[in-house]
Every structure is written in C-alpha cells, then in structure tokens.
Amino acid sequence: MAAYLRRDMEDAASYLEQTGNEFGAWLKFDIGQVERRLFEKMLTVADRTRIELAEFEARMHEAQTYHTGEITGPGVLRCEECGEELHFSEPGHIPPCPKCHATSFVRAKQ
Predict the structure, then answer these.
(1) Distance in angstroms (rounded) separating the CA atoms of residues 58 and 56
(2) 88-101-80-76 Cα dihedral, nearest 10 degrees
(3) What does the H/E/C string look like for the chain?
(4) Which of 9, 11, 46, 106 has its Cα between 20 and 30 A from that of 65?
C-alpha cells in the first residue's frame, strides 16, 4: 500500500511541476478518472442485472405454463393458443386443448 501511495504522490508532484497547476487541479483530474471508472462498472452491473432479470422472467413464465400430460389441481387453465378454458373440479391430467389441440396452458385469472 505504501508503494502505491508513494507512486501516486510522485505522480502528483511531477504533474504539478510540469504544468504549474495547483494540487486541487491534479486531484480533480484524478477524481474524474475514478468517477468515469465507477460509472463504467455500474453500467456493466446494470447490463448484467437486466440480462439476469430477463432470464428470470422467462423461467417464471415457463414455471407458470402447464403442458398436456401433466397433472393439475382444481381450477381453470386457459389455452395459450386460442384462449379456450379447461375447468378442473379435481386434480387430473391435462388433455390437449379441445378446440385447437395446443398443449400449453396458463392459469386463468379469476
């Protein structure tokens, strides 16, 4: 750590000597670099978060999708293709849609 600090102080002294500027100008330049780097890192995290959120939403949709042959509990399933509703009064196997023969369903909002 001491070596890094020494390097930075020597860099600051060199900058001040070469430019004739004050220490505050060097410090402001250094803070600007830190701000830019931090902003770049935040964008990277935001992009990764956006991708992970989209993947999560896709997994949630798949988890909420019921397929022909699976067992469902009582309630109403709606065909994702044509909107036909299948009513279940007790647990049972999900058949193909009686209207369009599709095999994907979601719970109907009541």
Answers:
(1) 5
(2) -10
(3) CHHHHHHHHHHHHHHHHHHCCCHHHHHHHHHHHHHHHHHHHHHHHHHHHHHHHHHHHHHHHHHCEEECCCEECCEEEEECCCCCEEEECCCEECCCCCCCCCCEEEECCC
(4) 46
Residues 55 and 84 both lie in one domain: no
Structural domain containing residue 70: 66-110
Domain count, the chain: 2
pLDDT digits (tens, 9 = 90+) for 20-39: 666 666 566 667 777 777 77
Where the chain has pLDDT below 50, the residues are none
Q: What is the pLDDT of residue 39?
A: 79
Long-range contacts of 15-21 (CB under 8 A, 24+ apart): none
Same domain, 25 and 45: yes
Please calculate the CA angle 19-24-30 and round it to the nearest 5 degrees: 85
